[in-house]
Amino acid sequence: MSRGDDIHLEAHASGEATINQAGRDQHVHYTDGTRARRRAVSAAHGQECPYPGLAAFGPDQAHWFFGRDEAVADLLARLDDRSRRGGLQLVVAPSGAGKSSLLRAGLLPRLAGGALPGSAAWPLLVLTPTADPLGALAARLCSRSGERPDEVAATLATTPQHAVTLLSGREAVVVVDQLEEVFTLCPDESRRGAFIRALAYLAAPGTEGPAALVVAGLRADFYAACAAYAPLRAALQDRHLLLGAMTPHQLREAILYPADQAGLDIEPGLVELLLRDLGVTPGVDAYEVGRLPLLAHALRTTWQQRHGATLTVRGYHDTGTIHSAIANTAEHAYTALAPAARQAVRPMFLRLIKIGDRAEDARRRLSRAELAGVDSAALDAFTEARLLTQAAGTVEITHEALLRGWPRLRGWLDDDRAGTLLHQDLEDTAAAWHRAGRDPSLLYRGGRLEAARTWADTGGTGDMSPTARDFLSASIGIRRRAQRLRAIVVAVSALLTVAAITAAVFAFAQRGEALHQRDTARYQRILSESDRTAGTDTALAAQLALLAHRERPAGQSPDETYTRLLSTQNTPLPVSLKGHTDDVNQVAFSPDGTTLASASSDGQIRLWNVTDPDRPGPRGRAGHTDGLFAVAYSPDGETLAGAGRDGRVRLWDVTDPDRPTPRGRPLMAHDGDVNAVAYSQDGRTLASAGQDGHVRLWDVTDPDRPTRRGRPIAGLVTALAFGGKTLAGAGSDGRVRLWNVADPGHPTPYAHDPINHVGTVYTVAFSPDGKTLASGGDDRSIRLWDVTDPAHARPRAYPLMGHTSSVRAVAFSPDGKTLAGSGDDQSVRLWDLAALHWPVPRGPRLTGHHDNVWGLAFSPDGTTLASASDDRSILLWRLPAAQQSAHNGGVTSVAYSPDGKILASGGDRSVRLWDVSGRLTPRGPPLTGHTGLVYAVAFSPKGRILASGGDRSVRLWDVSGRPGRPLTGHAGSVRAVAFSPDGRTLASGGEDPRLRLWDVTDPAHARLRGRPLTGHPGFLYAMAFSPDGNTLASAGANQEVRLWDVTDPDHPVPRGRPLTGHTGTIRAVRFSPDGKTLASAGEDRQLRTWDVTDPDHPAPRGRPVTGHPGAVYALEFSPDGKTLISSGADGALRLWDTTGRPSPRGRPLTGHTDNVLSVRFSPDGRTLASGSTDRGLWLWNLDVAPAIQRVCTLTTFTPQAWREHVGTDIPYAPPCGS
């Protein structure tokens, strides 16, 4: 018996054999007189290994997971905080630190055990991103909703916020292990971004907390890669957990406690030996954190060499110790293989590793199909040794420690690294080619083919997969065919060249041609300069585009400048105000919006007439004795306060803004600089903050006799803002403080939770309703705080990341739906706040300043934004009138009424109608009734009825907003609706996936026509009737377009064979106005056109057209059929000339910051409407004349800018005149 355990051992010996009892083991000694052997017989305890080796601990091994209790407790505390304020929780750790084990064996069991209130009942959704992160997330979300993962993944690609609805209102925990796979394995940028946004939506704070707690483990060397994604940047700046090396005490726990739990003994001295070999030295806690897997593997192999129930020093030495345990295991598995299987090991491992090009190598997961041809004996041997892991049809290296710890593998990686990178690229491209049905457009050409062929010719073919060999052979074959064709062309060209040279000599002898060549070179130079400056000075870029438009030589396509100028109409362009001789620090609009005040370090307050913001002019001045940092209008607009370097606050009577006069004596406010001044909403109190560390309140009920209110408030404050009876102050200590000033004579601080930044906070502003506070500072972020109850302030949303340097100013628009921010990156950024819990960028950043931007102010009508900069200028930004933030969850669909006067948009459970006769303005309240996203809207041909599709239903509305009864029958969300040209039939389709035809002759009594049509096995995303109404086209997730004969809509039948060729989900189909051409596009980034003159025998029209870098979501023909518009995941709209094979018309139309899901031409073809997941509903006037007029009205081309950007070889002649 041992330790009181109920274990009984019994043995008998005879002859010279002896038996000793040691602990729970019996040691039997055998001898033949000259030699001796010892065998240990252990109790039933100790037969299960408590050390998983290179594999991570799983939830079922939590009872063996020790040494990370403090980290688990820390993570739980952070998640408890997240359950109230939301936000993505990142766990960042170097490779090998144990983040996967922390999440799986530390966090998950604790949550399942109720470590957080209610967590025992929460669904725990665990995933790794893989090469298809959206598919992985969809699979986990669908495990609860019952929907098809592939269809949900397709939805998430365009509307990542759909992830929230899939949780059905239940709180859940989403754990993403190995988040770095989105960078190492996912090749599709748009799907990577959608996955990250979906996680952010799940974690976004709501009125009752986030939809889910989201935790993601990230390898530390991918920290920089996160910078390109706003949600990840925000998460890294919002209390991420950095997991480091374990302390010696924690390491002892991780060694001893699992052994004790499993009924094992550890020989004295073994723990110290393990720690020494790990690199832990007396007095120094740190060791190389990446070596932890080596310890884990050594413990497992030592258990395999245990003596009975005891882990011994001898057994540990037999494994090769920490230094070589992994190498010994791998080498043993390798050498034990037959020679043929051994040959397969090198290519197998090289394919399972993502070779880093200027980055660390990383393992990657492949399907068994992708490893077809690999010797199964090799695969099984390394799996049995736990160096490879096979699960769910996939194979991966168990831990990256093998990459460093096995010298043979390290040698394979370092031997001809350039060739290995080339081989990796070849295998990846070949796999994509194979998945795309061996599409010839994906074959290698040019330099890539030559490099691959050279590598293969020098012995690389032995490591190639069969698919890669086929891919390379096909690439070589297509090149040979091209070479044969080229030889014929060269022969013909040689004859033509002689004639051309003769003609050229004659042509260049003529002055006219020489001038034409010169003008063409100048034109191209100006165009290039316009593109180059677009990211730094929008006004200058617009002027250069206009100059190129004016100077376009004969023979150059007008589309190049046409599309550049069209893009300017939805970009705010600035009017510049100059006159200050030093930095301009702050600006303020008068309450009536007719005057702008600016404060400068030159000691002057300047007043500007902005009655017409397009043509501003100077008004009066107010002089101070030293530089000015702050200026503020009283609410009645009659008094202006200014303060700065001299420590005084001066009040000015500005009832006549052309002749401001002092009011009373200067207020001796502070010892040193005055940083800020602000008026209360009632105008009776003025607050000032100084460099002396005090905030003072002044009674300005009589502005000619101001007096101090109460005692000064202590605090080094850089900015002030009033919100009702609350005063906010931004501090250099990184905190924002709130005071109750209901009694201004006795202000009291609110004991709220910290409102913090990292570094100095430079700016604060209250929303118009006083419920939200914005702050910005040195940490480059803008943060939004819910201050409905100032005593319990809490974050409203993620920190807004976008500025690349300190944020110096923030300002709310008068309606509170837009926030502006500016700073040391010399730019202004706008954010859409229609959904406060999820702000999104509104348009591109505004550029034009050439130094730090310190001041921002919106005009009272919200149409103009003023910015002030150290470049001594003020810019007035005229915000485009043809833009609206239409739906909180993004705009999924748009449609024009037949008369072109009304635009409908669909989005977040609602439909909205817009008047497009002037400014884009709402036409009544939103039409509500849908219980989910509205994916599709369409007007009937007569314009009296609007159809919308979404939550398993179609709804019919008359334009007055009165709904008809819902048309039900769909088993999933309705993704597409379309009226027949005669208006009597409505087609609908979606996720179930059946296509239904409805008789809507009497909309009040609509009925189903015939039986639902089947033929698409996946989602239906797109439908369109031919102009004659006899044919219906449908397309979706099965990558086919189907044509239906609907001449008799009660008995529709298929037409011809399905149109195939797309290699991804088809998102859009459209007929040309003459009905002879059908266009289709989707997630394969291709635009295809089909000849449907005879719809029973459709045929492709030429090769597919490419141009979009991501998925294409929308298509539309112009009414004259000469232009096709497409839009997609890159946020751009592309125009295509369809008079022949579709060809690009100039540059894409840019401005949207996210997926553009819908585009429509107005019935007269003069206007284009676009809807995006950035919430933007935009109108584009396709007549370039208004865009030119706007450029000339708002911007100027100075002689200095001409010299710098056009050159001195062209006389100064600005395109808008002098």
Brief digest:
The chain is of the alpha+beta class and 1218 residues long. It folds into five domains: 68-242, Rossmann fold, CATH 3.40.50; 248-327; 336-415, Arc Repressor Mutant, subunit A, CATH 1.10.10; 574-879, Methylamine Dehydrogenase, Chain H (7 Propeller), CATH 2.130.10; 884-1185, Methylamine Dehydrogenase, Chain H, CATH 2.130.10.10.
Structure report:
By secondary structure, this protein is α+β, with helices and mostly antiparallel strands. It folds into five domains: 68-242, Rossmann fold; 248-327; 336-415, Arc Repressor Mutant, subunit A, CATH 1.10.10; 574-879, YVTN repeat-like/Quinoprotein amine dehydrogenase (Methylamine Dehydrogenase, Chain H), CATH 2.130.10; 884-1185, Methylamine Dehydrogenase, Chain H, CATH 2.130.10.10. The chain is 26% helix and 31% strand. The chain contains 25 helices and 76 strands. β29 (717-723) and β30 form a beta hairpin. α22 (538-550) runs antiparallel to α23. The radius of gyration is 35 Å and the shape is globular. The N and C termini lie far apart (105 Å). Residues 1-7 and 30-45 have low confidence and may be disordered. It comes from Nonomuraea solani.
